[in-house]
Design brief:
The chain is an all-alpha fold. It has one domain: Ammonium transporter AmtB like domains (Ammonium transporter fold, Orthogonal Bundle). Helix content is about 70%, strand content about 0%. The protein has 15 helices and two strands. Helix 9 packs across helix 11. The N and C termini lie far apart (about 100 Å). About 50% of the residues are buried.
């Protein structure tokens, strides 16, 4: 009798238990205030990386007569790309492109239409996600200016950046983060190794080659005019980068915590390894060397930050410090190109290092979180090679075409008199310092 009663009770209870489980499974995502608060903070941190972080880092590296030109370039890029991203950039990067979605998004989010107070991206407002991604679209072209500092027309720079973000950054961003063809191949890029750093580094190298060397380079000594500004800017970049990497999880969770941890570890390892390389080669460590090494570490850990553990971070930081040091010194000197502030040597090379090593140290056996879509070590590494290679080729070719067209139509470079005078006075009628 007791067994029969128990059976009947379970028969009545099971359908009731199944109702909330089914409802929960079909329930749409809900706003999470903790995730939203973290993403608001991360968005501010990434914007802080460009103004004032990158502005001061680059501004201190140029000569005193050009400091305002660098600050002006960073500030104007921030404003112009914000407008571009609002009008069509976000939509083409993250909208649904329909049959062409493998290559480019669609027009569903033009002018940020459809982004209402209640529209969500996972557990955060889509408005926050859109502006967070806007800060990535801002800093990427700003990184390029380090390669052609002290010699490009301001008007040409603005037009180039608008075109470059439209036809290079936006498509590559969609390929990787907008469910495009590189995402389908399983390419891992947590926070921008390919989308941001390889893209910017290759564009910087092409720009340096097309514009040619600064007047007097390399025979004329052109030291940084204010290393205190550069060190201060590097410190701001280091702090802001936690929003860059940990924020890319779009949640305040364990993955974001590990991304923050490995960012710190890799950056420190790269700073130490660059400093030691310089110390062994030149007999003395320099402030410029250690901060440049730190930035190289930040760059290299960016694509890996959500996928690797502390051991991977140490190896990636070591590789970035050593290889980027060699690239920014020996290789640049041997090849003779004038990458003024080492945009390619740090961001291009560091981005490639990080992208490729992600395909190794994401392995659970090495402390990582696992490979994409069930891929194995060999296939994941090849996916990383394809992602880096496709970005290098596409960015290099399109950037070259854009620069050559602009040079033919309006000219890229200031004349010798203006370059000698300095861009602050000749282009902006201002001085950085009135002593």
């Amino acid at each position: 009798m007791r067994s029969t009663l128990s059976t009947r009770m379970w028969a009545l209870a099971l359908p009731l238990l199944a109702v909330p489980v089914s409802a929960w499974a079909d329930e749409p995502p809900k706003l999470n205030s903790g995730d939203t608060a973290w993403m608001l903070t991360s968005t501010a941190l990434v914007l802080f990386m460009t103004i004032p972080g990158l502005s001061l880092f680059y501004g201190g590296l140029v000569r005193a007569k050009n400091v305002l030109s660098v600050l002006m370039q960073c500030f104007s890029i921030t404003a112009v790309i914000t407008v571009l991203w609002t009008v069509y950039g976000y939509s083409l990067a993250f909208g649904d492109g329909g049959p062409m979605n493998a290559f480019l998004g669609g027009g569903s989010r033009l002018f940020l239409s459809g982004i209402t107070l209640t529209a969500l991206k996972q557990t955060i407002p889509e408005s926050v996600f859109a502006i967070f991604q806007m800060t990535f679209a801002i800093i990427t072209p700003a990184l390029i200016i380090g390669a052609f500092a002290e010699r490009m027309k301001f008007s040409s720079m603005l037009i180039f950046m608008i075109l470059w973000v439209t036809v290079v950054y936006v498509p590559v961003c969609h390929w990787v983060w907008g469910n495009g063809w590189l995402a389908d191949k399983g390419v891992l890029d947590f926070a921008g190794g390919t989308v941001v750093h390889i893209n910017a580094g290759i564009a910087g190298l092409v720009a340096a080659l097309v514009l040619g060397k600064r007047k007097g380079y390399p025979t004329t000594h052109m030291p940084p005019h204010s290393l205190p500004l550069t060190v201060t800017g590097a410190g701001m970049l280091w702090v802001g980068w936690f929003g860059f990497n940990a924020g890319s999880q779009l949640a305040a969770d364990g993955t974001a915590g590990m991304a923050m941890a490995v960012t710190q570890i890799a950056t420190a390892m790269a700073a130490v390894s660059w400093m030691m390389m310089e110390w062994m080669r030149h007999g003395k460590p320099s402030a410029l060397g250690i901060v440049t090494g730190a930035v190289a570490g930040l760059v290299a850990i960016t694509p890996a930050s959500g996928f690797v553990g502390p051991v991977g971070a140490l190896v990636i930081g070591l590789a970035a410090g050593v290889i980027c040091f060699i690239s920014a010194t020996s290789i640049k000197r041997a090849l003779g190109y004038d990458d003024s502030l080492d945009a390619f040597g740090v961001h291009g090379v560091g981005g490639v290092i990080g992208a490729l090593l992600t395909g190794i140290f994401a392995s659970p056996a090495l402390g990582g979180n696992g490979f994409s879509k069930g891929l194995e070590l060999g296939t994941q590494f090849m996916a990383q090679v394809i992602g880096a290679g496709a970005t290098i080729i596409y960015c290099g070719v399109v950037t070259f075409i854009l620069l050559k067209l602009l040079d033919a139509l309006i000219g890229l470079r200031v004349d010798d008199e203006k370059e000698t005078m300095g861009l602050d006075i000749s282009l902006h009628d201002e001085r950085g310092y009135n002593l």
